[in-house]
Amino acid sequence: MAIVAMIVGAVLVLLVLWEGFETIILPRRVTRRFRFTRVFYRSSWRPWTWLIHNFVPPKRRETWLSYFGPLSLLLLLSLWAAVLITGFALIHWGGSWCFYPDGGTLFLSDLYLSGTTFFTLGIGDVVPKTSLGRLLVVIESGMGFAFLALIISYLPALNQSFARREVSISLLDARAGSPPTASEMLRRHSHQGGSESLRELLHEWERWSAEFLEGHLSYPVLAYFRSQHDNQSWLTALTAILDTCALIMAGVEGTCKRQAELTFAMSRHAVVDLALVFRTQPRQLTTDRLPPAKLDEICDILRHNGHDLKERGVLEQDLAELRLMYEPYVNALSRHFKVGLPPWVARENGMDNWQASFWKPPAKRHKEPEASEERHF
Question: Which of 17, 115, 219, 364 is the most exposed place for a label (fewest CB within 10 A)?
Answer without folding.
Answer: 364
